[in-house]
């Protein structure tokens, strides 16, 4: 007996990860033509179980499946001989995806198709109400109206689903069998899939029970090809506008959160911003607490129903300059300071001392901005300090725990606090902002600094609409 046979079958089940109008019916028919393989259809479609108009399967009706989808998954596997599986689309029961993706014994078959073709096919199927064709005599023909917004939503769903699948496969160290719509009628490819699944059966011919419904050029299938062409020309097909992001993901720094019992407010600070001023404003409301753990934060939230959370964003250039003075020039971050001097030729004064003149201050700060860009791109050996981490990444970290109810720019703090007071029924205390950080930046500001900041924190400028720093 071979080592492979002794180890048992490679897979004990499978899932076909696809979308509507990608050829999943055809691929299912060919899988079912393999002895020892059973594809059970769309078992977790929110409208039916397995196939159209079916409301029961393996002892589960729609209500029972809603209560226990994993129970149905187990029943399918236990009650179906051989290698069994099902089709799963992005809008099916979300509780099932982690269960199959995290199971290395469940084979992943990823079926794809040109998103434009699948969208047009879907539109035609909706118009004709013909989702499967087994006899060409029954073919219903129609042309679809291309809807730009509808196609963009379809494309976004397809791409987001594929990214999720790829990420889950990567983090679990698994691989999938990718097959495109163009390949599902290739007998050799289908038998290659059978070999990959670990079954001995092979197809002698491709299943001929289903007929292609919409052959022909895409432009002939729509009533408004000109609108389609114009809409497609606006799409960034190759994602040219995307800025690669190598910045480490950040978790919410819960111990830094500050809460006001009386105000029922939770402040989620972004380091490098006006943290001291906002904390003082909260203290004026009374009963301020901090040093939370996740448990104590959850307890506070439950004991203060109706609470609101907020954070404050600072202009990237001002935030960077504040970090530069307080952490680099002061010598608090020794490793970063040394790296800036050695690798980037920054001329810094002795720790904690002022620059000799404006020009030397400006030159050193420009070197820091360029260093920060490399840091955020993962091109330095030192970690990204949270004082110059992108505010986008910090808010994404917050979202893993709780998204702020209100995001306020520093320049609009007064109006933001007035809004919070109106929402929670208190009169906002006076707010005092230290003018020194702005004055310090004003003394050295130039266009070159602005450009360097935009290059380093392009995500923040784009995501939050920051313009040039205004004195």
Give the helices and strands, then pairings.
Elements: H1 3-7, E1 13-17, H2 24-32, E2 37-39, E3 56-57, E4 60-61, H3 62-67, H4 69-79, E5 83-88, H5 96-101, E6 106-112, H6 115-128, H7 148-172, E7 177-180, H8 187-197, H9 225-234, E8 258-260, E9 265-267, H10 275-285, E10 288-289, H11 294-303, E11 308-313, H12 316-329, H13 334-344, H14 358-376, H15 391-399, E12 406-409, H16 413-424, H17 436-442, H18 447-456, H19 458-464
Parallel strand pairs: 1-5, 1-6, 2-5, 6-7, 9-11, 11-12
Antiparallel strand pairs: 3-4, 8-9, 8-10
Helix pairs in contact: 14-18, 18-19
Structure, described:
The strands form three sheets. This protein has a five-stranded parallel beta sheet. It is an alpha/beta fold. The chain has 19 helices and twelve strands. Helix 14 packs parallel to helix 18 and helix 18 (447-456) packs across helix 19. It has helices at residues 3-7, 24-32, 62-67, 69-79, 96-101, 115-128, 148-172, 187-197, 225-234, 275-285, 294-303, 316-329, 334-344, 358-376, 391-399, 413-424, 436-442, 447-456, 458-464, and strands at residues 13-17, 37-39, 56-57, 60-61, 83-88, 106-112, 177-180, 258-260, 265-267, 288-289, 308-313, 406-409.
Keywords:
471 residues; alpha/beta; five-stranded parallel sheet; 44% helix; elongated; disordered N terminus
């Amino acid at each position: 007996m071979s080592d492979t046979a002794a180890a048992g079958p490679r897979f004990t089940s499978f899932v076909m990860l696809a979308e509507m109008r990608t050829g999943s019916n055809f691929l299912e028919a060919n899988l079912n033509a393999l002895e020892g393989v059973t594809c059970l259809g769309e078992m977790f479609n929110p409208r039916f179980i397995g196939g159209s108009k079916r409301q029961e399967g393996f002892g589960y009706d729609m209500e029972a499946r809603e209560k226990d989808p994993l129970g149905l998954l187990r029943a399918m596997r236990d009650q179906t001989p051989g290698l069994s599986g099902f089709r799963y689309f992005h809008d099916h029961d979300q509780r099932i995806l982690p269960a199959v993706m995290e199971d290395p014994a469940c084979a992943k078959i990823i079926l794809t198709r040109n998103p434009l073709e699948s969208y047009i096919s879907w539109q035609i199927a909706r118009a004709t109400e013909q989702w499967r064709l087994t006899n060409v005599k029954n073919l219903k023909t129609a042309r679809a109206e291309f809807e730009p917004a509808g196609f963009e939503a379809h494309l976004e769903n397809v791409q987001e689903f594929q990214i999720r699948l790829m990420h889950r496969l990567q983090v679990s160290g698994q691989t999938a069998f990718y097959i495109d719509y163009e390949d599902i009628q290739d007998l050799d490819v289908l038998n290659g899939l059978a070999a990959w699944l670990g079954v001995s059966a092979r197809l002698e011919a491709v299943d001929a029970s289903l007929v292609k419904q919409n052959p022909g050029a895409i432009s002939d299938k729509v009533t408004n090809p000109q609108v389609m062409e114009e809409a497609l020309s606006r799409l960034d097909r190759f994602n040219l506008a995307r800025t690669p992001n190598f910045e480490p993901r950040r978790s919410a720094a819960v111990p830094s959160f500050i809460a006001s019992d009386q105000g029922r407010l939770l402040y989620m600070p972004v380091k490098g911003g006006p943290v001291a001023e906002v904390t003082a404003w909260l203290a004026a409301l009374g009963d301020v607490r901090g040093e939370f753990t996740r448990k104590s934060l959850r307890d506070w939230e439950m004991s203060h129903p109706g609470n609101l959370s907020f954070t404050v964003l600072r202009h990237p250039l001002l935030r960077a300059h504040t970090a530069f003075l307080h952490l680099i020039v002061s010598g608090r971050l020794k490793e970063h300071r040394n790296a800036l001097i050695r690798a980037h030729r920054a001329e810094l004064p002795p720790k904690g001392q002022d620059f000799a003149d404006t020009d030397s201050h400006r030159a050193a700060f420009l070197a820091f901005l360029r260093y920060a860009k490399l840091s955020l791109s993962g091109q330095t050996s030192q970690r990204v300090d949270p004082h110059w981490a992108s505010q986008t990444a910090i808010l994404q970290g917050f979202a893993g725990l709780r998204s702020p109810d209100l995001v306020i720019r520093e320049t609009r703090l007064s109006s933001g606090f007035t809004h919070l007071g109106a929402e929670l029924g208190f009169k906002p205390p006076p707010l005092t902002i230290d003018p020194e950080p702005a004055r310090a930046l004003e003394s050295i500001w130039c266009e070159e600094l602005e450009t360097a900041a935009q290059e380093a924190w392009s995500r923040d400028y784009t995501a939050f609409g920051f313009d040039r720093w205004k004195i």
